[in-house]
């Protein structure tokens, strides 16, 4: 397994995801989404598996102004706005090769090889 966890140090679900893999002795790479963000390719591959760009966004996030701006941005510009503001992405984003999940999904991770 080649696990990557994209999240923030303050996110409880990200901490729970890290604990899940640690307890099972599974190595993972943590990427702080606020510091490094996601590349366009990474974001697109995760979005594709998880139902598209709209599903990648945490619409219940704190920054209501930014979320409103993204919501009403033209579709062709939405991706750029989200990549510029990675704090709006649902966390954790957990990747295992081509597989990925959004949020805390231990039942799905248990099935990964």
Please name the defining characteristics of this protein.
single chain; four-stranded mixed beta sheet; alpha+beta; 113 residues; 4 strands
At a glance:
Pfam families: ArsC. The chain has 113 residues and is of the alpha+beta class.
Description:
By secondary structure, the protein is α+β, with helices and mostly antiparallel strands. The model has no long low-confidence stretch (mean pLDDT 95). The protein has six helices and four strands. The chain is globular and about 45 Å long. The protein has helices at 12-23, 40-49, 53-56, 64-71, 75-84, 106-109, and strands at residues 3-7, 28-32, 93-96, 99-102. It starts with a strand and ends with a helix.
Main beta-sheet strand count, sense and barrel state: 4 strands, mixed
How many DSSP H or I helices? 6
What general outline do the C-alpha atoms trace?
A: globular
Terminal residue distance: 6 Å
Q: Provide mean pLDDT, rounded.
A: 95
Strand content: 15-25%
Widest sheet: strand ordering: 2-1-3-4
Protein name: ArsC family transcriptional regulator
InterPro entries: Arsenate_reductase-like, Thioredoxin-like_sf
Family: Belongs to the ArsC family.
Pfam family, one: ArsC
Give a topology summary:
Elements: E1 3-7, H1 12-23, E2 28-32, H2 40-49, H3 53-56, H4 64-71, H5 75-84, E3 93-96, E4 99-102, H6 106-109
Parallel strand pairs: 1-2
Antiparallel strand pairs: 1-3, 3-4
């Amino acid at each position: 397994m080649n696990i990557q966890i994209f999240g923030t140090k303050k996110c409880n679900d990200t901490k729970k995801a890290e604990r899940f893999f640690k307890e099972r002795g599974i190595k993972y790479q943590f990427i702080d989404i606020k510091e490094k963000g996601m590349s366009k390719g990474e974001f697109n591959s995760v979005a594709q598996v998880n139902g598209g760009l709209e599903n990648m966004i945490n619409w219940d996030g704190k920054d209501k102004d930014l979320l409103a701006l993204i919501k009403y941005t033209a579709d062709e510009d939405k991706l750029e706005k989200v990549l510029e503001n990675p704090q709006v992405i649902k966390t954790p984003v957990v990747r295992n090769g081509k597989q990925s999940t959004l949020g805390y999904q231990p039942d799905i991770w248990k099935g990964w090889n």
